[in-house]
Design goal:
Blueprint: H1 2-16, E1 31-39, E2 42-52, E3 58-65, E4 71-81, E5 86-93, E6 96-104, E7 110-116, E8 123-129
Antiparallel strand pairs: 1-2, 1-8, 2-3, 3-4, 4-5, 5-6, 6-7, 7-8
Length: 133
C-alpha cells in the first residue's frame, strides 16, 4: 500500500511540473506593446516596453498621453512571474507608485491587467505587441 501511495504522489508531482521552458516564458515578453492605460477617469493611449536588464531580470518603461496632451512617463521594475503567463511589477511615475498585475495571452502577444496603489481600486492596463516591420 505504501509503495502504491508513493507512486501516486510521484505521478502527481510529475503531472504538476511545468512543461519544458514554461517556467521561463517571461524571457519572451521583452518588446513594445501599444497600450491602453487608465488615468484621469478613462483609458488613454500609450506604450509599454519590456526589456531584460543587465542582471537578466525583466524591467520596463511606459508612457501615455493625458487628456491635456501632456506625456506621462514611468518605469517598471521588480517584475516577477506569478503563475502561468502572469507577471507582477512595480510601477513608478510622477503620480506615485504601486503594483501592476498582467495576464499574457497564450502567444504572449497581448496582456490584460491592472495597476493599483495602496488602498485604491485596480485600474485597467492593456497592451498588444506592436508588429515589427
Amino acid at each position: 500500500m505504501r509503495k502504491l501511495c508513493w507512486i501516486g504522489i510521484g505521478l502527481a508531482l510529475v503531472g504538476a511540473a511545468p512543461a519544458a521552458g514554461e517556467d521561463r516564458w517571461w524571457r519572451e515578453v521583452p518588446d513594445v506593446y501599444a497600450s491602453q492605460i487608465w488615468s484621469g477617469g478613462g483609458l488613454l493611449a500609450g506604450r509599454t516596453e519590456f526589456a531584460l536588464g543587465d542582471d537578466g531580470r525583466l524591467i520596463g518603461q511606459y508612457s501615455f498621453v493625458e487628456n491635456d496632451g501632456t506625456r506621462e512617463r514611468g518605469t517598471l521594475d521588480g517584475c516577477e512571474p506569478s503563475g502561468r503567463r502572469r507577471l507582477v511589477c512595480r510601477w513608478h511615475d510622477d503620480y506615485g507608485d504601486g503594483l501592476l498585475k498582467l495576464q499574457f495571452s497564450q502567444g504572449l502577444d497581448r496582456f490584460d491587467g491592472g495597476w493599483s496603489q495602496a488602498g485604491k481600486a485596480v485600474r485597467p492596463w492593456r497592451g498588444e505587441r506592436i508588429p515589427r516591420a
